[in-house]
Amino acid sequence: MTLNRIASKFALIVLTVLCAATMASAGTIRGSSDNGEDSNAPNWLMLGRSKSTTLTANGKVATMTREIICLNQDDENAFPSPTLTSSGSCDTGDYMYLFQFQSTSANVGVAIGKLSGFAYTNAANFGVMICDSPNNTIEMCTNDPTGANIPSFTTNTTKTSVLFTVPGTFPSYSAGTAQQGQGLTFFVITKQAAPLPIALPSVGIR
Q1: Distance (Å, rounded) from C-alpha 140 to C-alpha 169?
Q2: Rounded to an integer, what distance in angstroms lies between the CA atom of residue 54 and that of residue 169?
Q3: Which residues lie closer than 8 Å to 146 by C-beta, 6 or more apart?
């Protein structure tokens, strides 16, 4: 085998490994109506919204609030006869993490890491959550019912992380209900091998 062929083969192997480790896509726009309604909130709202936290990096500033949803509406504590050792979990281990941001900075990157059971090649597992239903008024979401004002964000994913990048000026939205909050809301879905302990993601900006 010639040196040129060896070099070409090595370059192909490196490219294959890199592609397997990182993927880029636009992500998904998902409506809060997919997760449940006010009437059955105990089944899907596992951990309500947190207090707002200020994040800073590279001269950029953003405020962030988080929430946890049981993707399959299987909050163990809402079952008629819950398994006590599984209390405080989503029974199947399928979790949706919501992160709501406000910022006046430009070109903000939102980095979500330490994800467990993250199917990073499936774009349905990450994106922006919008408030699209009058029947769900207590889930945190972006107050843009049609998704017409969602920016052209990009994403880069690995097996344990997703980076959302919002080009230009960070968008602002009017407030929804007190529970829906105010700001651009990202979601990430994971499927843990076991429902507990919950692998809480890390979050930061770039």
Answers
A1: 22
A2: 18
A3: 130, 132
Averaged confidence pLDDT in the chain: 91
Domain boundaries, the chain: 23-205
Residue 7, exposed/middle/buried by CB under 10 A (0-12, 13-18, 19+)? Answer: exposed
Q: How crowded is residue 59: how many other Cβ atoms within 10 Å of its Cβ?
A: 6
Whether 126 and 115 have beta carbons less than 8 Å apart is answered as no
Distance between CA 190 and CA 133 in Å, rounded?
24
Q: Strand, coil or helix: what is 154?
A: strand
Find all residues with CB under 8 Å of 107, minimum gap 6, and list them. Answer: 60, 165, 166, 167, 168
**Where is 20: in which H helix or E strand?**
helix 3-21
Enter the DSSP assignment of 195. Answer: S
C-alpha atoms less than 13 angstroms from C-alpha of 189 in its C-beta half-sphere? 19
The residue-averaged pLDDT of 178-193 equals 98
Residue 205's pLDDT is 98
Identify the residue whose tokens are 């919501």.
98
Read off the pLDDT of residues 43-80 as tens digits, 9 standing for 90 and up. 999 999 999 999 999 999 999 999 999 999 999 999 99
